[in-house]
């Protein structure tokens, strides 16, 4: 599984796989919300080359492993949204 640091995301599309309440509390600017439980059904909505993010990196790591099994290019954002926010990356709202 490929893992990248928040600063390495650059222009990659970001897919946030957290639940609705977590998303509503705060998320990366420009992120696409596809909860982990919906990834299989919404696979065609996941852009190739996506940076996948959750709260801490565990769920997104599982999603990246699944995407790679499907032949998709994806990377896990190390430290998740907590690390993203801690580094002062652009956010909508705040992470609780």
What's a quick, concise take on this entry?
Residues 8-93 form the Rhodanese domain. With 96 residues, the protein is α/β, with parallel strands linked by helices. The chain has helices spanning 20-25, 58-69, 80-86, and strands spanning 3-4, 14-16, 26-28, 32-33, 50-53, 74-77, 91-93.
Describe, in plain words, how this protein is organized in 3D.
The chain has one domain: Rhodanese-like domain (Oxidized Rhodanese, domain 1), CATH 3.40.250.10. Helix content is 26%, strand content 22%. The longest helix has 12 residues. The radius of gyration is 12 Å and the shape is globular. The N and C termini lie far apart (27 Å).
Task: Summarize the main sheet.
Answer: 5 strands, parallel
Q: Total domains, how many?
A: 1
CATH architecture identity: 3-Layer(aba) Sandwich
As a whole number of angstroms, the C-alpha radius of gyration is 12 Å
> What is the CATH class name?
Alpha Beta
Helical content (DSSP H or I, runs of 4+)? 25-40%
Report the oligomer.
Answer: single chain
Number of helices, where a helix is a run of at least 4 consecutive DSSP H or I residues: 3
Name given to the CATH homologous superfamily: Rhodanese-like domain
Class inferred from helices and paired strands: alpha/beta
Strand content: 15-25%
Q: H/E order of the elements?
A: EEHEEEHEHE
β-strand number: 7
Q: Which blocks of ≥5 consecutive residues have pLDDT under 50? A: none
Q: Look at the structure and give the mean pLDDT.
A: 96
Amino- and carboxy-terminal Cα gap = 27 Å
Report the CATH topology name.
Oxidized Rhodanese, domain 1
Q: Which descriptor suits the 3D outline?
A: globular
- Order of strands side by side in the largest beta sheet? 1-6-5-2-4
């Amino acid at each position: 599984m490929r893992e990248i640091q928040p600063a390495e995301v650059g222009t990659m599309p970001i897919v946030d796989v957290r639940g609705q309440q977590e998303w509503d509390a705060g998320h990366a600017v420009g992120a696409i919300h596809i909860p982990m439980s919906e990834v299989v059904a919404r696979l065609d909505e996941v852009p190739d080359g996506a940076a996948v993010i959750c709260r801490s990196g565990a769920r997104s790591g599982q999603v990246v492993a699944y995407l790679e099994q499907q032949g998709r290019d994806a990377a896990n954002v190390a430290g998740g949204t907590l690390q993203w926010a801690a580094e002062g990356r652009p956010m909508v709202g705040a992470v609780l």
